[in-house]
Each structure stands twice: as C-alpha cells, then as structure tokens.
C-alpha cells in the first residue's frame, strides 16, 4: 500500500503484535532448542526481519513513523514437543527402533507430572513419564518403538498435562498446537547385509562367517531385523550392491580393482562397510586399493599382524578403553561394562590412525586449497603396550566404514563366544547401515512434495488431510518435475498432523504413504522481543513502542485521540482470533 502511494509525504504505520523473538529477531537462535535463525539474515544490515521492507522504503526517501503496539502476555509461557525423530538408519518391521523425543519448557516455572502419549499410527502405546521439566530447559528422551508392519507408517508423540488438580493449575502452556509432533517413516522387512566369506569351511565352527551370521540373525522367535546373505569373495565383483545396506568383509584375502572401486562407490553413496581382520588379509593390497593414502574408505592404514606374547597372562590382550557414549558401546555402560572385560585377543592387525597429509586440490581461486580427508575415530583400544586400536570408524562420503582389528570368528579372539558379541554385532550393523530415504518432516504451510514412480503407480492420488476421516479425500494428479521425475504435490498444509496419500499401483492395488506436517518449534517460544531489540531492527526509522494502550490514548493529542479506540479493538480482535485458531486447529490436529 505504501509503495502504491509514492507521492504521499509522510505515513504512520501501526503494528499490533506479540513480537515473538523467533519471528522479529531472525538473527537470534532460539536458545532452548538451538534452532537456526527463523529467516535468512543479511550480514551487511542489522535491520533484518519483518521490518526490512519498511526500512528499505525509508532508505529510499519515504518519511515513515512506526508505532509498535505490544499485546504480548506479561509473562508468556509454553511447553512443546520440539522434535520427534527415528534414530535407526533403517527401520525393520517387528524390531524395536529408537526414537528421539525432545520436549522444551518455555516458561519461568518448573513443570511436573507430565507424560508423553506415544502412538504408532492409531495404536496407542503405554505413556512415558517425563518427570520434572526445568524452567527454560529441554528434556530429551529416547523411546523404543516397534512398527508392526512393512510399508509406510508414522509415530506420534503428544504431551499430556498433569492429572492432579494442583499440577494442572500450575501448568503453563500458552499454546496447545505444539503439544504433539509426528514423524512419517518407511518400514522394511529387514536390513539387508551382504557378508563376504574369506575362508569358507564345511565345518561351521571353522567357517569364517558362521558365527558372524549367527549373531546377525540368531535363531529364535524374535527377529533381529537383519536379512543376511553370504557369498564367497569371488562373487563380490559381480554383486549388485544397490539394495544392500551393509557389506561385511570377513578375513577376505584380496579385492580386485573392480570390487575395490565398487566398494568405494558404495560407501561414498551412503553404504556401510565392515572390515574384519584375519590371517588371509593382504595388508599391502588393502592399503593400496582400499586405504589409498587416506582417499579410500578403509578407516586407517594397516601396519602388521601382531600377537600377544606367550608369557602374558592367558597369552592374550584385553580391552583397555572403549567409548561408552558411542552407539556401539552404549549398551555396555555402567555394570554392563563387565561384559567386555572378558574379551581376549591373541592376535590383531595394528593400524596407523594419524590422518594423512593434506592433499592439494584445484579450486576456482588462484591459490590452491588443502583438503583433509575425514579423520578416523578409535572407538575401542586393547591393553597392549601401544594401546592399539581394536575398533576404528571413519566417515567416507555419505557412508561410513568400520575396521575391527581382529577376526569375526574364534581364530584370533574369544569374542564370538562372549555374551557381549551378539549385542555388539547387532549394534555394529545397525550403526553402519545405509540410511533409507526417509520421508522428510514438513512445516505448517510448506508444500508437501513426494516422489512417485510412474513405472509402478498411476498418476492419480487421493489425499486425506488430518482429522480422522472427517473430511473427504481429495483426488489430485501427480506432475512431472523439472528434472524429469514425477512428483505428488499438496499445498494445503495449514493444519498440522499426518497427511495420507493413497497410491494406486498399475495392477490396481492401493498403497498408503504418509507425510507429517508439524508446527515450527521456534514458534513455541513465546518470549517477546524487548523495546530496544525491536528498535534496533528498525534501523533509523523513528519508533514509538506502546505497551500500555490506555496510557497511549491518554497521552495522545486531540487530533490523534480517535486512533486508539480502533487500535484497541484491533488488538483485542487479533488476540481473540489467535486463541480461536489455536483452539480450532489444536483440537482437530491428528
């Protein structure tokens, strides 16, 4: 409107708002959630954010005056579920999956008696007590959730207020819209593991891969979540790794240049590689083809095979140190650490973990730039005189590789006979597995875009918005994206919750896919920006900050007095509208 009247000499702009910091101070991170700024910030100007267009007009010569009317609560408070995220790279049906949940208390008082209501699709799980939420603090919980079926699914976590009257009276929860959050996911039949057996043997207990594969998929009623296939090293050259989540080399002698290059591409694209040692491993060959002076996926250069001296107790080394905070050894913290103390290693391959020298790569600038390959991380060490690494990991491209300095069988270690071996191998595989292409979480107002395979599905899709089927499904047509793919697009996401998309295969079968739409967690912090902070965002614009409408009206001159009545009505209307929308959509969120 102001741009449409360039000849108007002067203008007063009245802004009625609660002036949330997350919206009005975009260069300030939300302290409790460590979220990035809500809007991109121009580093050359301080006056970024909603006032930037007005500042631009003033810089262009317009005479403007701002009146900022703050209608925020005196002590705004709120609680919110700010994150729900599956932690496992792959989710297998019938196998417990860890889900990270974050709950923030954006108030000035501790909150107690809270619970998390957890559901997988429409199946409710037992509530999870939260204990006390500290004022201004964040509580992080890791839940175990089991998805019962293969295909698309979702998990929803909601914040339940206290059940006792006193605790409910003390609860501070300004907005209910952000009390729940959902995550959509794809559930597989199992994690596909390809084991390359370097020393097959008709005797199972002398076979290199038998104990490893038994740990990966133990017998019994409970499914481990791993779908294991074993091949000889000669078959690696022709193996299709495109649908494999983890490749494990068990005492493999040598790799051909073809298989080494295939593994490099596989890990760089996100695959997981496990390398177990043994007497057949050709150290020089591995260093040349898989380590490649730090440019390959092998986490560290191999040095030599070493044995524990016979005069040492038991003729073996034990574990000296391991990283209890890491996913591989998290199960062995506290009293469970005793399980690892029984491990004995008679022989291992020593490795050099210092990173290689920086390499020079071409850049667009006149000066060369040095790049350092990702450094290896030692996760466990032996108690030999050199404290040699036993387990090393290293990121490589989008994937990761892990080197275990001893064997996967009993040739060099008693580990496969130890109770700690099975949980370690399961965690090792889960940690290394290629991450599946999980469905992204969308924000309220975002456009949902989901890929559609035209060779499998018809272009017509039925969309069901949140609300438990109260609203009729809408039929839409998939479209061709600029890159030639086919996309499902849905723009009407003003309501948070889980959106269902019914796809029809070319054979007539209906498959359902989900997308989760959540409130931006930054909006859960209702803390308003202060007078001085708001004035700084206005640059050189003259600003009048109003907190007390009555005083503002009383101090106004007669010529302006008629302004405060409509402003007061407008402010009240804004507040009523916000509360009505929060109640309406909060009650209907599904």
What does this protein structure show overall?
The chain is of the alpha+beta class. It folds into three domains: 10-73 and 524-588, no CATH class; 191-432, Rossmann fold (3-Layer(aba) Sandwich), CATH 3.40.50; 442-518, Macroglobulin (MG2) domain (Immunoglobulin-like), CATH 2.60.40.1930. The protein has eleven helices and 31 strands. The strands form eight sheets. An eight-stranded mixed sheet has the order 12-11-13-14-22-21-20-16, with helices on both faces. Strands 5, 6, 7, 9 and 10 form a five-stranded antiparallel sheet that branches. Helix 5 links the parallel strand 13 (246-250) and strand 14. Residues 30-47, 358-371, 558-562 and 583-590 have low confidence and may be disordered.
Structure keywords:
alpha+beta, elongated, Rossmann fold, five-stranded antiparallel beta sheet, 590 residues, eight-stranded mixed beta sheet, 11 helices, Immunoglobulin-like
Average pLDDT score: 83
Q: Which percent bin holds the helix content?
A: 10-25%
| Approximate strand percentage | 25-35%
Stretches where pLDDT falls below 50 for ≥5 residues?
30-47, 358-371, 558-562, 583-590
Q: In what order do the strands lie side by side in the largest sheet?
A: 12-11-13-14-22-21-20-16
Can you name the CATH architecture of the largest domain? 3-Layer(aba) Sandwich
Strand segment tally: 31
What is the fourth-level CATH superfamily of the largest domain? Class I glutamine amidotransferase (GATase) domain
**Main sheet overview:** 8 strands, mixed
Say what the CATH topology of the largest domain is: Rossmann fold
What's the alpha carbon Rg, rounded to whole Å?
A: 30 Å
Q: How many H/I helical runs?
A: 11
CATH domain class name of the largest domain? Alpha Beta
In whole angstroms, the N-to-C terminal distance is 39 Å
Number of domains: 3
* Helical/strand content category: alpha+beta
């Amino acid at each position: 409107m102001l741009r449409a009247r360039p000849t108007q000499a002067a203008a007063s702009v009245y802004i009625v708002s609660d002036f949330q910091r997350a919206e009005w101070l975009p260069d300030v991170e939300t302290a409790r959630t460590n979220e990035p700024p809500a809007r991109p910030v121009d580093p050359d100007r301080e006056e970024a954010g909603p006032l930037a267009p007005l500042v631009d007009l003033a810089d262009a010569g317009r005479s403007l005056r701002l009146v900022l009317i703050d209608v925020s609560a005196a002590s705004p408070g709120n609680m919110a579920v700010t994150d729900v995220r599956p932690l496992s790279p792959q989710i297998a049906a019938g196998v417990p999956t860890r889900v990270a949940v974050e709950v923030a208390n954006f108030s000035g008082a501790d909150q107690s008696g809270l619970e998390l209501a957890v559901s997988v699709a429409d199946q409710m799980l037992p509530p999870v007590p939260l204990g006390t939420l500290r004022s201004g603090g964040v509580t992080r919980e890791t839940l175990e959730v089991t998805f019962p079926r293969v295909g698309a699914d979702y998990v929803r976590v909601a914040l339940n207020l206290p059940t006792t009257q006193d605790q409910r009276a003390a609860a501070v929860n300004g907005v209910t819209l952000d009390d729940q959050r959902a995550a959509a996911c794809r559930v597989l039949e199992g994690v596909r593991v390809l084991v390359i057996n370097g020393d097959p043997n008709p005797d199972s207990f002398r076979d290199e891969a038998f104990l490893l594969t038994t740990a990966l998929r133990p017998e019994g009623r409970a499914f481990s979540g791993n779908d294991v296939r074993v091949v000889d090293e000669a078959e690696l050259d022709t193996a299709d790794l495109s649908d494999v989540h983890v490749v494990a080399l068990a005492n493999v002698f040598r790799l051909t240049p073809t298989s080494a290059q295939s593994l490099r591409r596989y890990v760089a694209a996100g695959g997981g590689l496990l390398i177990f040692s043994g007497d057949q491993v050709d150290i020089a060959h591995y260093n040349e083809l898989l380590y490649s002076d730090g440019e390959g996926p092998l986490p560290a250069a191999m040095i030599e095979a070493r044995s524990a001296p016979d005069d040492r107790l038991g003729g073996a080394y034990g574990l000296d140190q391991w990283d209890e905070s890491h996913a591989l050894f998290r199960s062995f913290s506290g009293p469970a650490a005793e399980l690892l103390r029984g491990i004995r290693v008679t022989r291992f391959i020593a490795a050099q973990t210092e990173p290689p020298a920086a390499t020079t790569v071409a850049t667009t600038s006149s000066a060369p730039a040095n790049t350092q390959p990702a450094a290896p991380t030692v996760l466990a060490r032996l108690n030999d005189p050199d404290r040699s690494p036993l387990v090393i990991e290293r990121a490589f491209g989008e994937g990761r590789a892990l080197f275990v300095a001893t064997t996967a069988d009993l040739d060099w270690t008693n580990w496969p006979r130890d109770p700690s071996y099975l949980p370690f191998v399961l965690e090792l595989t889960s940690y290394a597995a290629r991450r599946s292409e999980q469905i992204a979480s969308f924000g309220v107002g975002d456009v949902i875009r989901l890929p559609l395979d035209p060779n499998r599905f018809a272009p017509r899709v039925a969309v069901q918005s949140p609300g438990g089927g109260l609203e009729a499904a809408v039929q839409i047509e998939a479209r061709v994206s600029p890159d030639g793919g086919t996309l499902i697009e849905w723009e009407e996401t003003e309501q948070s919750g889980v959106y269902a998309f019914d796809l029809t295969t070319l054979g007539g079968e209906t498959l359902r896919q989900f997308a989760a739409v959540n409130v931006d967690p930054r909006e859960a912090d209702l803390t308003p920006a202060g007078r001085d902070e708001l004035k700084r965002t206005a640059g050189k614009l003259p600003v009048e900050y109003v907190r007390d409408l009555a005083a503002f009206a009383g101090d106004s001159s007669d010529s302006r007095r008629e302004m405060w009545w409509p402003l007061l009505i407008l402010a009240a209307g804004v507040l009523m509208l916000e509360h009505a929308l929060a109640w309406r959509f909060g009650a209907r969120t599904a």
